């Protein structure tokens, strides 16, 4: 049999909205992130190998992703990999997908699904930390979900920050590169996106306004975090799944170890956010910031990969 190869063009054709809808459909259909298979980690010479299986009644799949920290200096992508999609009943392969392109679409879609239920229709000021593929992907995903009036891009490399701001301006958004480390910018933000490789907090969480939403996606290890204890302690917290967050999310595990946060402080997971009116009402009435932490899960890749397979590029 000839196995279809679905590359970046096929994956990008689904678009941010298609990916967000696929994730929401999976959760609305009863998928429980708490029972989803855990990610497997393997240290290898080039960095880290991630093995992420998942299954539904219709399809099964596994992503093998590489995280190669030295690749950008070589002019190569930091995230690599492939995704094998199979028929659930027969376990016969259906397609092989570009794993890096799938991740680039899936991760912003997870954030955008949370944003769909955590923010109003208009974002007055988006502060975007990061200048890599995930930053570009998150900008596209948020613009597909919300009207954004102003964007500030904060990055360690001023030229790359300005390049992303220029990209935003070309697609019609008022955007500029932030000055310094972005501390002053978060004081007027109503949405903050953290899409970096930083292992230490990017800003002072006490500066984030009440009512703002903060999304962090850059880290998936217990000893790394993009936001500080101050933000976590004063926020309503939503995660993909409690089990995954309490195993991998340093943004929560470090405050927990400090005694400033407890597992009971997690207000809900993504399925509860999508399906639960009571949780959404509770969060809308909450006076402090709302914090969504994503570490990436295999069921998300499967939902998006299946949607790409159903809707091939023209």
From TrEMBL:
SUPFAM superfamilies: NAD(P)-binding Rossmann-fold domains. One of its GO terms (cellular component) is cytoplasm. It comes from the Bacteria. Pfam families: OCD_Mu_crystall. InterPro entries: NAD(P)-bd_dom_sf (IPR036291), ODC_Mu_crystall (IPR003462), ODC_N (IPR023401). This is Ornithine cyclodeaminase. It comes from Streptomyces atratus.
């Amino acid at each position: 049999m000839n196995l279809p190869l679905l590359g970046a063009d096929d994956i990008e054709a689904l678009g941010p909205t298609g990916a967000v809808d696929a994730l929401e459909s999976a959760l609305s259909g009863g998928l429980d992130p708490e029972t989803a298979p855990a990610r497997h980690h393997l240290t290898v010479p080039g960095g880290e190998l991630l093995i992420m299986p998942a299954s539904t009644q219709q399809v099964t799949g596994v992503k093998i992703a590489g995280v190669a920290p030295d690749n950008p200096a070589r002019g190569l992508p930091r995230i690599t990999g492939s995704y094998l999609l199979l028929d659930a009943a027969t376990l016969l392969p259906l397609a092989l997908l570009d794993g890096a392109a799938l991740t680039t679409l899936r991760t912003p879609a997870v954030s955008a699904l949370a944003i769909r239920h955590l923010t109003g229709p208009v974002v007055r000021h988006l502060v975007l930390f990061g200048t890599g593929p995930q930053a570009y992907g998150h900008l596209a995903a948020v613009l597909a979900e919300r009207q954004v009036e102003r964007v500030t891009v904060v990055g360690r490399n001023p030229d790359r920050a300005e390049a992303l701001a220029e990209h935003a301006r070309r697609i019609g958004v008022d955007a500029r590169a932030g000055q310094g480390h972005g501390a002053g910018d978060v004081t007027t933000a109503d949405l903050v996106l953290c899409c970096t490789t930083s292992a230490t907090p990017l800003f002072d969480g006490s500066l984030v306004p009440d009512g703002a939403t903060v999304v962090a996606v850059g880290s998936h290890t217990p000893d790394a975090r993009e936001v500080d204890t101050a933000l976590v302690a004063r926020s309503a917290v939503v995660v993909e799944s409690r089990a995954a967050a309490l195993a991998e999310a340093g943004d929560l595990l470090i405050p927990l170890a400090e005694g400033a946060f407890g597992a009971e402080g997690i207000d809900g997971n993504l399925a509860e956010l999508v399906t639960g009116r009571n949780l959404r009402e509770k969060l809308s009435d909450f006076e402090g910031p709302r914090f969504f932490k994503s570490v990436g899960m295999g069921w998300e890749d499967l939902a998006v990969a299946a949607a790409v397979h159903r809707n091939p590029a023209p």
